Amino acid sequence: MSAEKLRGLGVSSGIVTGQVVVLQSANLPVVPVPVPPERIEDEIGRLEAARSVARTELQDLRNRTFEVLGETYAGIIDAQLLILEDPGLLRKTAHRIQVGRIAAAWALKEEVGDYLRKFETIADGAFRERGGDLQDVHLRLQRILRGDVRGGEELPDDRPLLVVAHSLGPSDTVMLTRKNLAGFATDVGGKTSHTAILAQALSVPAVVGLKDITQRVRTGEEIILDGESGTVTIRPGANDLLEAERGRLTLEERESSWVEVESAPARTEDGTAVSVQANIEFPQEVEKAKAYGAEGIGLYRSEFLFLSRSPELPSEEDHYRTYVEMAARMAPAQVTIRTLDLGGEKYFHDVLDAQETNPVLGLRAVRFCLQRQDIFRPQIRGLLRAAAEADIRIMIPLVTTADEIRQVKALIFEEAGSLRAAGIPCREDVPVGIMVEVPAAAWSADILALESDFFSIGTNDLIQYALAVDRSNEAVDYLYQPLHPAVLRMIKFIIESADRAGIPVSLCGEMAGDEEMTPLLVGLGLRELSVQPRAIQPVRRAIAGMNTREAKARAMKALDLPTALEIEEFLLAT
Ligand code: PEP
Ligand code: MG
């Protein structure tokens, strides 16, 4: 078969060639196949055999997970092993085969469907959310029943492995345990989707929005995944491979020239200092951030701490230790830790309500934290204790009203009092800032600035909410316009409000990492940007190559143009 090239959105740079693992789709085409009476026992035998294969697979996966990521991730697999061993599941499925004279796959699908419906009616959220693990076990058993015995898990560990999936959810995080994981390609997803952010954090190339790649490629086939051009070449020929290798070497050269660089502030031609900091998702990324010259951590997404321990919740001690260690590695530079931002289209966690009809507008981020103080307070205590020893700032995501800031501050006040009473060192005047990423917050930035120690503009969400465009949906990607006049006007107003109140303002959305945007952002008045580590050097170079006065004049002109396209053309001209 000849090579086939698919186009999507390149969301994490790099070019890699490797074998594909196609993750199972949640919608398996299982149909009710009748079984003659004399084959009923065989069919039940097949079900038992499938369970035994699944057990071996999960135990292997558990061992590998433990080796690579430690006990907390391995716990994800334990939950699935427990479900697999549930005697009721097998007994009831066997009963369905007998009574209905149907094949094991259909009987299992029906039985699991019943379980899931029961889970949904149980009020205890944690129990109900066990449904996700049950689904994973179900998919594994269905695959084995179809005769696809190892579903790609037997692929060798010595070659780069590329994960192809419809989308990547939390139950797929086990794939990240593979030492040779080298990239992602998904049917859906937008530029600032969390798959994209995760791929960048893991420093692997990713292409999203490929529409039907899961239908076009099979586990074990070779592809070239090019995060630069946003393409995937299936069954590449010799010339494709050669070209990919050339591209890879060029990128490697470019990147090696960035590593181990100074982290002094970048300066424009006319001497304006602009601080370029790093966005990270895993504490270990601090080393990468430093190597690329980060002047600090402008955004640590603490939801990853929750996800890595899921279904357990991190304890106060986990929070404290994680933050103190991360800040110590980054010292003397500052670390900004964002409090839990789960919900919306973000990674799923057991503690969330899977039934929200519109989660992007739902109980997400600070809204969730203020309702689930049992989860939020340990994080606050860990942060206050860490702040006593390290230069950290607390950042609240998705703030919509001043009242939310006040409520968080009241919790900080209470927890600081309780720590002090217990003789535990803490810093209660730790700087507390907010993400400005909801249009309501943007347009009341002058008010919110009076209650905040700093701002960070979250354009990933600000664009989503301002333009009513799902940031993870490639179908409306054309409308996801960072240069839309409404977005630029909001950014300008936020910066002016921060300046008037005398508080620092940064921008930490993906837009900050696009070096073509740098003159515009500096021209609008930003002096701090926080970007994925690999974008630090290109952004620093863009700063060094620009003139602040000129950039300001151009930014002001851009604000008067009617469309994103005209603004882009104007900025690119000259
Ligand atoms: C943002 O919304 O711009 C942001 C940086 O946060 P996240 O991408 O984690 O929502
Ligand atoms: Mg956000």
Automatic annotation (TrEMBL):
The keyword Cell inner membrane does not apply. It comes from the Bacteria. Keywords: Cytoplasm, Kinase, Magnesium, Metal-binding, Phosphotransferase system, Sugar transport, Transferase, Transport. Residues 7-130 form the Phosphotransferase system enzyme I N-terminal domain. It catalyses: L-histidyl-[protein] + phosphoenolpyruvate = N(pros)-phospho-L-histidyl-[protein] + pyruvate. Belongs to the PEP-utilizing enzyme family. This is Phosphoenolpyruvate-protein phosphotransferase. It comes from Candidatus Polarisedimenticola svalbardensis. The gene is ptsP.
